[in-house]
Specification:
The chain has one domain. A hairpin with a 5-residue loop joins β9 and β10. Strands 1, 2, 7, 8, 9 and 10 form a six-stranded antiparallel β-sheet that branches. A four-stranded mixed β-sheet has the order 3-4-6-5, with no helix packed on it. 0% of the residues lie in helices and 61% in strands. The chain is mainly β and 114 residues long. The protein contains no helices and ten strands.
Length: 114
């Protein structure tokens, strides 16, 4: 069976999916030398205010999501540029939905330019 190609907003979808996260971290590893790693970390603090921050290096992108506990979903309006893969700019977008029992549903898409 032949794979399909998906494009949206001038970008090609590299990978998309939905995870049920029952811990504090999600790691995505893209093959290469060295591999490119995207780490998403969930934390909660006493403020109750949602906050997203990130740090990036040549082979790793770390995204910290604080107090992402809404059952209605939280995420970004626009994809974040997170690095390069195969010489192309790679972007990442997501939505997080809080589930009963403390788990989270994490919907994600990775894009490349073109």
């Amino acid at each position: 069976m032949q794979m399909i190609s998906v494009r949206t907003g001038g970008k090609t979808v590299l990978q998309t999916g939905v995870l049920i996260v029952n811990g504090d971290n999600v790691d995505f590893e893209f093959p290469g030398q060295p591999p490119f790693v995207v780490r998403v970390r969930f934390t909660d603090d006493a403020s109750g205010k949602s906050n997203a921050s990130y740090k990036s290096s040549s082979n790793q992108f770390n995204l910290s999501l604080v107090n992402f506990n809404s059952t209605l979903g939280q995420g970004l309006k626009e994809p974040l540029e997170i690095g390069k893969i195969g010489g192309k700019n790679m972007q990442f977008n997501f939505r997080v939905y809080a589930l009963q029992g403390g788990d989270r549903q994490f919907t994600f898409t990775f894009y490349v330019e073109g």
